[in-house]
Amino acid sequence: MIYACCDDRRRSILAAQKIWNGIDYIDVSDDQLTLRVYFIIPLTPGQLTIGNVTITGGESITNVAPVNVNEDGFASPGDPTCLVVQVNGPGDFSTYTLSLVSTADPTKPPPGIDFVLSSIGFSFKVSCPGTLDCQPVQDCPPVTATPIDISYLAKDFKSFLGLMQDRMAAIVPQWQETHPADLGQMLLELLAFIGDYLSYQQDAVATEAYLSTARLRTSVRRHVRLIDYPMHDGRNARTWVHFNVRSDVEALNVAPVTTQLLTPGSQPGPILSFTSSAYTQAISEGPQVFELMEGATLYAEHNQICFYTWGDRECCLPAGATSAWLRGSLPNLAPGNVLIFVEAKGPDTGQAADADPAHRWAVRLTSVTPLQDPIGGQFDDPPNSNVVNVTGIEWAAGDELPFAFCLSSSYGASYYDNVSVALGNNALADNGQTIAAEALPPVPGVNPALTLAQPSIGDRCSHPPPVTPKPVRYNPTLAQAPLTFADPYDPAAAANVALNSRVVDGLLPVVSLTDQSGYAWTVAADLLNAGPNDPLFVAEIDNDGGASLRFGNSVYGMAPVTDTVFQASYRIGNGTAGNIGADALALVATNNPVLLSELSNPYITSFTNPLPASGGIDPQPLSQVRQLAPIAFRTQERAVTAQDYGATAVRVDPSLSQAMGTFRWTGSWRTVFVSADPEGSETLSAADASEIQTGMELYRMAGHDVAVMAPIYVSLELQMQVCVQPGYLSRDVEQALLNVLSNRILPDGTVGAFYPDNFTFGQTIYLSPIYALVQNTAGVDSVSITRFQRQGQCSTNAVSTGALVMDALEIARLDNDPNFPNHGILKLCVAGGQ
Length: 834
What we know:
The strands form eleven sheets. The chain has a seven-stranded mixed sheet with strand order 11-31-10-12-24-8-32, covered by helices on one side. A six-stranded antiparallel sheet has the order 14-23-17-18-19-16, with no helix packed on it. Strands 25-30-26-27-28-29 form a six-stranded mixed sheet, with no helix packed on it. The chain folds into eight domains: 9-122, Sandwich (Immunoglobulin-like); 157-206; 208-225 and 621-635, no CATH class; 238-296 and 581-608, no CATH class; 304-424, no CATH class; 433-447 and 470-572, no CATH class; 636-709, GMP Synthetase, Chain A, domain 3; 713-832, no CATH class. It starts with 8 loop residues before the first helix and ends with a strand. With 834 residues, the protein is α+β, with helices and mostly antiparallel strands. It contains twelve helices and 41 strands. It is elongated and about 155 Å long.
């Protein structure tokens, strides 16, 4: 048979009937002299004789012929479907053909034998050792297509269009239309556009494969993620906002989820409804939108609170203060509330327009103490005998005043009271507008067109396993931008810390997804650690600020099911655009029915942000990432030497001034003792030491134990004799010297000579700088240092040498604190002057 077929249906038909027979297969004996020919159905006795069998073929041996034919099933007990043919000798390695022919007409098969199955090819060497499969290969090679004469240099729209127009001229010469509105011309332009887009994608594969050439923000982020570089996408701004309410308002609640704060536009305020056309118009004008990060309860008596100075005049609240007194009984003022101190009048003019807008500061209260001044009425105008209620307040150390607040002043004959006041009814707000329940396109199904083509194999009858079509990649894009990146907020933190001590690395965008069944999906930084059933997704920011969502593939993160419809809730507003100035917010948008109940006489009479918004950071530029990421990759992430352990301790806790590591053999292994010196302090708490030790576990070498301890502080004893110039008060000069040689931060911002951070481990203390500081102090005529030693150790007096040497782990200190006399002593013998 000349055909190569994969499905042998003819044999099945013959096996199901009893009239026609045919050859099934041949078995060659080991001596290659006997052929056992098996038929599909049993033979009848005497049906075939030696005259019906012919053997043809061969290359080197062509005279192979049958010498005997025996019907095996009838001559002896055996198989009735087998015909035994003995030949005169074995053949060669070529293929022979055994045919059954009619004795009357050799061109036809014997009676009852099927024409197609009346012959069969075989080899005498089938039993010889070999490694090849005997199954025949049905090779149907593919038809080679005639190549088309086109230019493969076409890479853009214009060249693609010209290429297709030339091709159309060759295959459809009668089509000559070139008008742009022609349907054929439009189709060519559409295909040229698709070709141009695909060409760009091909170029982008190579361009985006390297950090130095990548142009897409998503590509750069994925590159640097592999080396753990924390590329950031910016951060939103924050500010404290203040509400003024009607005089009859008591306990008006303002909730975060129902309130937005807008910069002013053409719409009147201060209150707008979310469902009003005025709000729609205000949003269309592109304002900066802020939303409350915490709820607030508003009271009329907290609109503006006056300071109380117990009857004294021309007072100020000094820099560094952490407590004050307020006039009035304020039962609703509690620890945790935030007050904003503002300069309400110019100290010299008493006019509100002359107030310095930079003199504003927010504090979070830690203590509220009600009290009474029994003679307070005597200081009123006119004086009276009334008792005045006052409230003492204290605030967190992180909110100490950076500058002095003038509370009352006089200029000439004029006296100005309440120059600075405290504002209550405050809450923290951050930049960003919530977009709720935005419907995303449904998850697409499997696209058969995305099935990978299988490579051609030689045997077309060997069918490859079925290939599952690839699902369509689901990367929906959010409709609005830029996506908000906000760091967590601690309501117990100091007010200044909430604004300024913020992080930017590792921030996640404010976005969440919910499918039609109510199942929630959570945003993640990446899917590298996600399991196959984790409902996570990644929001990737594009160059234009838009956000596309990337889901898992059932290996790294759960893959969304076909036809799932997601609803996205997210916030927009990010970067330095949110760093608005003070008093920039003026509109309140809400759906609170209480606030909207009396718009003609609103409960909130005015609203603003006394402090400018801060903290907004734009996304990190790609050029900066390309410069910093390789350097960060080369940063040593382990501590090996003693110096490494010291530097690592400062890296773990940036609040340390310095740290020093030393190796010691502790019996069975080496222990690294890290001496940590806190910045601006000489006390290392047990909690800080434990936190540093835990953080260093990521960097220590195997076999090294780490123990964190405080430095060895060496108290100094310094005594000097100072001669004061005529015209100077000796007491003033002495006080100036105590300041110069103190361990404090001075009012002018400078630090004393023995400020803790002025000294480090093993630093030698020299007398010459001390002489210079004292001699340069106004009013000092001469100075003589008589004692310079370790406290209580006269043998270490270094006046003659001018230098006091410290050991490697020692840090000098001289606090001159009478409460801690063992922390160093300074004695001044001042003479002369007045």
